[in-house]
Amino acid sequence: MPYDVRWHAAGTTSKRALALHAAGHLGVTPDVVNSGRLCPRCGSSRHGRPWLRAYGVAHHVSLSRSGPHLLTVLADVPVGIDVESVADVARGWDASLVLAPGESAETDVDQARAWSRKEAVLKQRGTGLLAPMTSVVLADLSGEHWADLDAPVGHVAAVSWASATAGG
């Protein structure tokens, strides 16, 4: 797999989760890992896409939280990850905001999976939900991939990664 996924204990902060994940994955100590967030729209460090450096070297990361569940991913290529509560997605479901023409999602689980898959792709692209979910057509991705992940009961999760490019 071109990525490494980890679930973290309830209450773990995003910063701590990324440091522990990087330490285990890269074989470094958590104290050499720096991470944060950067919003591509406003430049804020209080929200936006996560970033991570170990010994000054940047690594591709993503994270997602739903209730007590925190999920992180590290990769050698651009990557995105998402975890969603099936019940929460069902309560707010609006197919016109999520599904592209020709796509369908009949059950609550189908709807949550569509949401999770598309959000993971948008995170991998670096836009997050600044781009409409309807712009992602899961059956027609070029150079991008997604996979469903095992998730806690009542939740779904997905990861998306870009194909490795020459020199990257």
Give your account of this protein's structure.
With 168 residues, the protein is an alpha+beta fold. It has a single domain (3-162), classed as Ribosomal Protein L22, Chain A (Alpha-Beta Complex). It is built from four helices and eight strands, in the order βαβββββαααββ. It has helices spanning 14-26, 86-92, 95-98, 108-125; strands spanning 3-8, 33-38, 49-54, 57-66, 69-75, 79-85, 144-149, 155-162. The strands form two sheets. The chain has a five-stranded antiparallel beta sheet, with helices on one face. A three-stranded antiparallel beta sheet has the order 6-8-7. It is globular. It comes from Nocardioides hwasunensis. Keywords: Transferase. GO terms for molecular function: transferase activity.
Over the alpha carbons, how many angstroms does the gyration radius reach?
16 Å
Order of helical and strand elements? EHEEEEEHHHEE
Shape: globular
CATH topology group: Ribosomal Protein L22, Chain A
Q: What are the segments in which pLDDT stays under 50 over at least 5 consecutive residues?
A: none
Strand content: 25-35%
